[in-house]
């Protein structure tokens, strides 16, 4: 018995051939991947109508577009609900097979038309009763066209669509507003409109020269014929349009000139009308919006002062104040930056902050930036993932640079992930079409300006919790035209109150977007015009999201639109600092959109938005490699321009290039000397008054750096090349 038992135990397992193991592994991986991805096709008797349809997974907020053949892939699983619009109508289908989800659109359309006829019959009866009621009180009824109109020509995908005309023709730029709410829309050049209204809402219809009308929504398709107001029509004077600055800026600004060109009425209407065909050629041209950058890493002591003065109340409101900064630079033994290296700021065994090195080899770490946390004090360490102590006694930023070198190879491949998170609520209606055009331009040019980089992009749109969607996420892809098409398909709508679902948007952007772990740069542009909803829970969630983004190496770059207040400005600048980003804001110089507040800053330089975004992507994306020559190192166009200006006094710095020390000499006393990297970030500074300074660049990676020397009367710039 014992021997039998022994033989059974010692009997070897049946051997499997390599081919069988491979087949089993493939089957397992396929089963796993199918559980994460829904593949399908929309089938229709009209093949031209199934390309570039947006498929939205209501369960996980992911979105995608169909191919020319109607096929699609989207993140999801069994039981998920997919939503899409076909010829202006919304459809929702449940997924019963992730291997291949076939959607027969002709069948769905037929069922929808049957339901629509029933609804139209009921609506016609209600309209008849409403008109009788108007006549009873001697009021002229608002003429309603029958609801079974040419709805397939309406390009909008809102819950209520329609067309507005007078007795002769379509009326463009008619204002349609939901009574009692801030949600508005305008008709396009063909009189069509779309608005996120509900059955029972009252629509206010307003147009110069016509009677203001109110009508109750009784059907998803509402068409109106406006009556002329002869008393006011003769008093209307149409004048040419030119951009104007809406308010005087109070901060010191290097201004650009906005030409006051006169345009025709037709051009004005074309520029104001939203894009309806999905082509950027029908919308506003790129290069119209103006913006400025506030890089608080460049003026760090000024930021620290703001948190104790002008912006102090918002520090206490959001309970966040990143001021105790520890900068670390990591390079290899050849002197080039090591990127995307995870590092930890620690007090004993307690981890205070986790970050990753950026494209310049620099990581920003913070000692308890939440005001609700207890400060860990001094004597902090910086370690890597393996527990190796990189800096035994870390220096705070004002004390100097923390640095470490590894014996490792240079970065061989530059991989850039760029995400766009965009507020799509109704309050963005004054600028969203212009922003879309600017983004098309930037996205198309990014690949041209970074030809040797592997670029992937994604786009996320968010609204508010009571809207038809909260978050819509188009995941990362190397197919850049698909990202552009997705952005083109979006429009502003919903909202109503001031705060929006910013937290939900950030949460999805950080955790649901497929950021690549080995990407050398991860940039998240957050376009918004309102703050998140405020509560103690939400404040804690914001603190968590800032930490999580920093740990993943995601650099948050806010872009503030009209409507932003000082509270939101402070919050977004704090998140930008925590995640090694920068803060951008639109300005009034373009004359487009509502008023934009001037940021709290020492000085700002106004740029065209598309040029600014492209500059930021290049500065935050470029990586200096071992095989590059000095003249090919990444540079900063703004600081290049400053350093090229003629010097009215003797100002020298040598040796240049340098391997370690550089001596600065000036024939009049200077009181401040600063050194910046190519992203505009302040590396270190001296504030003693002298005519000669020595800077030690030994711990810095090989790169281009910029000097700023301030005398009593002038500021001078210079460019230094560090090369080991």
Write the layout of secondary structure elements.
Elements: H1 2-10, H2 18-34, E1 37-43, E2 54-57, E3 62-65, E4 71-75, E5 81-86, E6 89-94, E7 101-104, H3 105-136, E8 143-144, E9 160-165, E10 175-178, E11 184-186, E12 192-195, E13 202-206, E14 213-216, E15 224-225, H4 230-233, E16 252-254, H5 265-272, E17 290-294, H6 300-306, H7 312-318, E18 325-332, E19 342-347, E20 350-356, E21 362-366, E22 381-384, E23 389-391, E24 402-406, E25 415-423, H8 432-449, E26 454-462, E27 471-477, H9 480-488, H10 502-511, E28 521-528, H11 536-552, E29 554-560, H12 566-578, E30 583-586, E31 603-608, H13 609-621, H14 637-643, E32 651-654, E33 661-676, E34 682-686, E35 690-696, E36 703-711, E37 715-722
Parallel strand pairs: 1-7, 3-27, 9-15, 16-31, 18-24, 25-26, 25-28, 28-29, 29-30
Antiparallel strand pairs: 1-4, 2-3, 2-5, 5-6, 8-15, 9-12, 10-11, 10-13, 13-14, 17-30, 17-31, 18-21, 19-20, 19-22, 22-23, 26-27, 32-33, 33-34, 33-35, 33-36, 36-37
Helix pairs in contact: 7-12, 8-9, 8-13, 10-11
